[in-house]
Amino acid sequence: MADEAKARGNAAFSSGDFTSAIRHFTEAIALAPTNHVLFSNRSAAHASLHHYADALSDAEKTVELKPDWPKGYSRLGAAHLGLNQLQEAVAAYNKGLEIDPSNEALKSGLADAQASASRSRAAPSTPNPFGDAFKGPEMWTKLTADPLTRGFLQQPDFVNMMQEIQKNPSNLNLFLKDQRVMQSLGVLLNVKFRPPAGDDAEVPESDMGQTPRKEPEVEKKREPEPEPEPEFTEEKEKKERKQKAKKEKELGTAAYKKRDFETAIQHYSTAMEIDDEDISYITNRAAVYLETGKYDECIKDCDKAVERGRELRSDYKMVARALTRKGTALTKLAKCSKDYEPAIEAFQKALTENRNAETLKKLNEAERAKKEWEQKEYFDPKIGDEEREKGNEFFKEQKYPDAIKHYTEAIKRNPKDPKAYSNRAACYTKLGAMPEGLKDAEKCIELDPTFSKGYSRKAAVEFFLKEYDNAMETYQEGLKHDPSNQELLDGVRRCVQQINKANRGDLTPEELKERQAKGMQDPEIQNILTDPVMRQVKKQISSFNL
């Protein structure tokens, strides 16, 4: 995580390990590339190693990300000052003071920059023949690259001398007795200097044993070592941002309740700009877009909320809410069955995040709407009639399975055709699939109560099942609509014969047993037998027989 890498960078900086600090701050920046504090801290670490060009780059990025943050201009001024860009340093410090006039670090930096600029103007006009060797960051690069001078950069007194020479090349005369300066001058000019006769050529490693020299008559005050931005300042800023964003959200919600949708959108948008770590501001704005019929904007906000929620590992309920709103917006835009597919997908994803009744209801409604659209899109009565005729041909050839296939297609093309249901019921009856035949016959009657064929199909199934009373009622119901229908009249006659046969006791033992079994399955008889009073009577009769 970025915060962990940042903490490691701060610890390394505090211990003086600036190289490690830079590495840790770089890791943190890779994880949070818009965090201005990380660039500010890395700029401080670069400046501590006198890598002022890199420090300047990070300082400029800091100001770009957070132009109203005074600390960024302090970093910018320090980097310019290290590069001896005095006018730019003064301008950076002044810019920071415009934002925070009481900032002591900016005031001190400005004073140093102005003092250095004054010394530069007051320096003799005679050009120093070695001045070009000390200009810009190239000086530090050459000294770092040479193995003899690289170690000098770890010695504060040497660094101070080189900074003074860089600010004013005329100061070189003050430090010529120091062998380190002479050695460095040789590296910068690509010339090898021979140490003075009798002088020890060994380069001193510290102030101890260093050749005495006259201290330069220049002001010793320099820019204080930059420190990483304290943690508590960042946390305080973050807390203030969240409070401000929450206030905007409350104003947006109040406007929404008053149905002042434009104002609500403005407040939610402001909250999003202030705090991008709370996706509720995005989902709330999406809700306003949904309410106002701006479905495309709603979908964009929901996608953004889901993506950001994944990055932040937000509450799964918030992610589910965004997906549900997206699905709702998609159903509003649906104009054909395929348009419901992304909506159904959004609802299904929402349920994997958080299963709740509202989303499940919306999913069922979307699936039902998709099915209805598919039926509408498939509806074609002309093709339905053609398929029914094909089924009739197969029926005549006694190819009932093939006939059923074409009758089924006819029903799909025209679900309100009673003839297709009637014909398929006849096929099922021929194949012995009585439950399916009875269901199709009842559907036929439902679609057209005056269609006599539906009654004959239903009664035929009931007669086959030896439910003669039910078959009789069905035939008689059909005769109400078509009194002269011979098929219905013949059916009534057959039912009367079977009923009279049973009443006379002419049934075979198998028929009697089967009839008794069917009677016991009758729901009314089952209710009578399970009645407590009837059970008591049955028990008493059994005791009398004993």
TrEMBL record:
Biased composition (Basic and acidic residues): 212-225
GO-annotated cellular components: cytoplasm
Stretches forming TPR repeats: 2-35, 70-103, 245-278, 384-417, 418-451, 452-485
Major site of localization recorded for this protein: cytoplasm
Record keywords: Chaperone, Coiled coil, Cytoplasm, Repeat, TPR repeat
Localisation per UniProt entry: Cytoplasm
InterPro entries assigned to the protein according to its UniProt record, in alphabetical order: STI1/HOP_DP, STI1_HS-bd, TPR-like_helical_dom_sf, TPR_2, TPR_rpt
Region (Disordered): 110-136, 194-251
GO molecular-function terms, A-Z: Hsp90 protein binding
Domain STI1: 136-175
Keyword Chaperone in annotation: yes
Coiled coil segments of this chain: 349-376
SMART domains linked: STI1, TPR
Biased composition (Low complexity): 111-125
PANTHER family for the chain: HSP70-HSP90 ORGANIZING PROTEIN 1-RELATED (PTHR22904:SF536), TPR REPEAT CONTAINING PROTEIN (PTHR22904)
Name listed for the protein in its UniProt record: STI1 domain-containing protein
